[in-house]
Task: structure prediction
Amino acid sequence: MEAYRQEIIIGAVLVYMVFCVLTGLWAMRRTKSSSDFFIAGRGLGPIVVSLALFSSTLSGFGFVGGPGLVYSTGVSSFWMIVISSTGYALGFFLVAKRIRMIASLRNCISLPDVAAARYGSEPVRFLLALTIVLGVMGYLATQILAMAVVMQAILSGTETFANIGLISCVVISGTVLIFYCVTGGIIASVYTDVVQGGIMMVAGVLILIAATSVFDGGMQEATSIILADDAEAIMPFGTAGIMASLGWFFVFGLGLAGQPHLVTKMMMNKNIADNRTILPMSLLGYVLAALLWVSIGIVMRAAVLAGVSEPLALPDDAASVFLSAFTNPLLAGIVFAGLFAAIMSTSDAFLNIGTAAIIHDIPKALRGKSLENELLWARIVTVLLAVVAAGFALYSHFQDATLVALLGAFGWATFASGIFPVIAIGLNWKGASATGAIVAIVSSLLINFIAQLSAIQIPYGISGGLVAFVTSMVLFIGVSLATRTRSLDDDIDALMDI
Result:
C-alpha cells in the first residue's frame, strides 16, 4: 500500500471533488429561491446544523493554519482552541434563540436583515453588510489559499505534476469550488458538512494516535525535544507572548458569537428547541477535530528539531508533510479529502454571506429594495467574489508570504469587533441604539484595516484585532448610553422579553 501512497491520496481527493459536483447538482434541484440559496429555507435538522457549525469554525484555518502556527510559535495558538470551545456556549446563550425568532418573524435571509429589524436602521444594515464583505475577502482568501497549498502538496509528489505551481492549484480547486457554490448554494454546503464533519471527528482521533507513534516516547518525547530547543515555545503563552495569546483569548472567545458564517447557520434550524442538542454536538465535534491542530503542530516542530524531517519551506506545510510522511496512506487520503471538504464547505459559506450582503443587503440599504431576480444575481456575484478573493489570496501569499492562519485571524477579528457588539449584545439589551451600532462598526473597520495595511507594531505584542474589539465594545456601550434609544417595534420589543 505504501508504494501507492500518492495514488491513494489523489484518488481520495478526486472522489471527494466528484462528490462535490454531484452534491451541487442535487442541491440545485432544491434551490428554488433566494431563501433556499442563502439560509436553506430554515428547514435543517439538528445534526446537519451542528456539524455545519463546528466544521465551519475549523476548516482550512484550523487544518492548515493551526498546525502551521504551532510549528512557528509553539503553544500560543492553543488559546484559540480552548476559548473557542467556550465561545460556542456563549454564542448559543446570547444569539441562537433570538436570531432564529427574528428571522422567522421578519422573514430575514441574512444577518444585516436581522440587524435592520432590531435597530430599525438602514445605515446599520449597510455598515454590517460592508463589514461582512470586507471580512469575507480576508477569510475567504484564507480558505482558497489553504486549498491550493494542500493541492500543491499532493500533486507535487507525483511525477506528472511534480512542478505544478500554486496558481495552477488555485485555478483547479477554485473551478470546482465555484461550480459547487453556484449550483447548490448553502444547501450544498451544509449537506456536505454532514460528511466532512464525520471525517474531521474521526480524523482528529486517528491523527492523534499516528502523531504519538512518531517518537518512541510519544507526545512526551516530542514536547521534551521542543523544551530543550526553546523552552518558551512550550510554555503557556508560546513565543507569541502573553498579550498576543490573551488577545486571541478575547477575539476568539467572545468573537465567535460575531462570526457571520456561524451565526447565520443559527437561523437555519427547523425548530428553536433543537438548540439544546445542537450545542453539545457542535462542541464535541470541535474538540475531536481540534486534536489534529494540536498533535500535528507539536510533532512536526519536534520532528524537524530532531532531524526526523526536513525543515519546512513554510509553516503552513506542516499538515501536508505530516500526512505524507508519518501516516498510513489510506488515512492520509481520507484526511486530505476531509481537508478539502472542510475548506470547500466553509468557502461556500463565506461566498454565500458575502453574496447576500452585495446583492440583497447593500441595495436594500441604499435603494429600499434588493435586486430583481435575486437567485440569478446570487450565482453571478458568487463567481465574481470567488475570483476576486483568489486574486487577493495570491497577492497576499507572494507579496509577504502571510501565514494562512494569520490571514484568517485578520478576517475573524474584523467580524468579531464589528459584529459581536451589534448582534450578541444588541439582541440582549434594549438600550442598545442604532447610533452606538454605527459608531462601533465604523471604529472596528478603521482600526482593523489601518493596523493591517500599515503594519503598525503595537507595544507588548498586542494585536490590532484586540484593540479593535475592545474599542468597538466600549464605544457601542458608551454611545448607546449617551444617545436616546429609538423605541423598538412592538414585535421586536415583545420578542426581546422572551
Notes: The CA atoms of residues 451 and 464 lie 5 Å apart. The two ends are 59 Å apart (CA to CA).
